[in-house]
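agent> Task received from the user: take the single chain below, predict its 3D structure, and emit structure tokens. No templates, no multimer pairing.
agent> Plan: (1) validate residues, (2) run structure prediction, (3) serialize to tokens, (4) report one or two observations.
agent> Step 1 OK, no nonstandard residues flagged.
tool_call: predict_structure(input=
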Amino acid sequence: MARTLSNMLPLGTKAPNFSLLDTVSDDVISLDDVKGIKGTVIMFICNHCPFVKHVNEQIALLAKEYQVKDIGFVAISSNDAVNYPQDAPHLMKENAVQENYSFPYLYDATQEVAKAYDAACTPDFYLFDANLRLVYRGQLDDSRPGNGLPVNGSDLRQAMDYLLAGRSLPQDQKPSIGCNIKWSDT
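)
tool_result: status=success, residues=186
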């Protein structure tokens, strides 16, 4: 199991725009469509990564808890589905239904969105404020497959709580660790 760390996009970066296919609804969804009134969480995930499987239940719970607090959520898979067919859009839809996602699960077929966000691994988490400026990027929490620590979303939860309270977020943020994004050869 490869262990790739987040690239840690600079804080304050404006969220790059996107319009991608939502594998659940078959609609094209843009950043404006998922933007929350108070903040927006953008997650780069995929179906097959053991690091993502490890946190799926928690990200579904966090989304349901914070969407009612005006935080928007969206997940994006940028993996090459030709060489990694388990990450194909029709299977993304199955995964989203099975995991009870309350947010769109978008497919980045060209991988341009992942490149724009400097995403490196799955899962990779980004929290943007109401003006779509990056205030947090990095890990969900300290739990990893096999390390025995509880999956509780503590790092991302703290970031969202600080944002909602109007408090400045700590600048020292831990990168996420996961499988590398499966880049296309073309």
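agent> Step 4: summary for the user.
The chain has one domain: 4-180.
agent> Done.
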